[in-house]
Every structure is written in C-alpha cells, then in structure tokens.
Amino acid sequence: MQRYHPVLVALHWLMALMILIALAAGELILENLANDDPDKILVLTGHMSAGVVIGALLVVRLVTRLRIRTPPRATTGNALLDRISVWTHWGFYVLVAGMVLSGLATALGAGLFPIVFGGAAETVPEELSGLPQRAAHGWIATVLAALIVLHISATVYHQLVLKDGLLRRMWFGPRS
User: Fold this and answer.
1) pLDDT in tens, 106-158
2) CB–CB of 48/103 below 8 Å?
3) Per the CB 3.0–4.6 Å rule, which of 43, 52, 127, 136 could disulfide with 102?
4) Among 25, 5, 27, which Cα is nearest to 138's?
5) What is the pLDDT of residues 63-101, one digit of tens each?
6) How far is residue 76 from each of residues 61, 81, 86, 137, 140, measured CA to CA in Å?
7) How many separate helices (H) and strands (E) can be counted in the chain?
C-alpha cells in the first residue's frame, strides 16, 4: 500500500473540513438569516473569507497533485465504479472551482466586498437572491454536497466491504 504525499494529505483534510463548514454556513446559517440581520455580515465575512482560502488551496492542491507522484488508482474490481471514481475526483476540482468563482461573481454582482470587508453599508442588499450567479452558487453547492456523500460512501465501501485499507492511503505515515 502506498500513501499520498503528506502535502496532499494535509490539503485533502484541510479542504474537506473547510468545504463542509462553508457549505453548512451557507445552507444552514446564511440562508436563514434576514439580509438586515447584523449577524449576516459577520457570517458572510467568514463564508467569503473561507471561499477565497479554499480557492487558493485548490490551486495549490491541483499544482501539487500534477507535480508529485501519487499511488496507483484504487480499484474496486468493477470497471464502471472505477470510472466513476476518476470522474468524481476530477469533479471535485471542477465543482469547488465553480463554487469559488460563482461566489466571487455573486459578491461582485451584489457589491458585497465593500459591505463585508469595508463597512460601506449596514445590511446585505435584497437583490442578492435574484442574481443568476447566486442561483448557480446554490446549484453547484447541491451537486457538490451530493458528490461528497458519494465520496464518503465509496470510502465506507472500500473500508467495510472490500477491506482494502484505502483510507490509510489518505493519511500520514510512511509512503511505501
């Protein structure tokens, strides 16, 4: 069994945690706060800051992934599942990039940067919900959440059914 490079392992788990928190903040907190609630700007500041950091980490992860030798792809013994695995992993890169870009487009379209980071106004504008880039952000979040469930399900399948120790590959330790 070969492990992934520790940089890729650290980026995987850090990004996983940040993405889960950002998705939860967007869906469970931001969606339920009125735009004139002062707490909305506070939560939005954290959400937008996390989104920018996630975007930067995504670039670092992709460059690192393309430059560092990785273990051979895990297999399930089923060609279709193995193809789904490849598409799922690359899908994460596309969807996370889409989340970051649609989030930035929403912030720019609604004029959120001066509100959130510069104190230019006291409330989030109401027209935010009508922006097409905001709708795209929500749609991508839904697809990303579904892909995360698929990813976790596949990990459980590898661990409990195939018992191939796949999860150890994405943890710290000797790489051989």
Assistant:
1) 999 988 888 888 876 667 887 777 899 999 999 999 999 999 999 999 999 99
2) yes
3) 136
4) 27
5) 999 999 999 888 999 999 999 999 999 999 999 999 999
6) 25, 7, 12, 33, 28
7) 6, 0
Cα 169 from Cα 176, distance rounded (Å): 10
Helix (H, G, I), strand (E, B) or coil at 94: helix
Q: What's the pTM value of the predicted model, to 2 decimals?
A: 0.91
Amino acid at 107: A
CATH of domain 6-169: 1.20.950
Q: How far is CA 115 from the centre of its chain?
A: 24
**Within 13 Å of residue 161, how many CA atoms lie on the same side as its CB?**
9
Listed by start position, the domains of the chain span 6-169
How many angstroms separate the CA atoms of 154 and 58, rounded? 22
Q: How far apart are CA 36 and CA 98, in angstroms?
A: 28
Q: At what angle do helices 6-24 and 132-156 cross, to 10 degrees?
A: 130
CA dist list (Å): 11 to 93, 126, 165:
13, 36, 20
Q: Is 109 strand, coil or helix?
A: helix
Greatest extent of the chain over all pairs of C-alpha atoms, in Å: 57
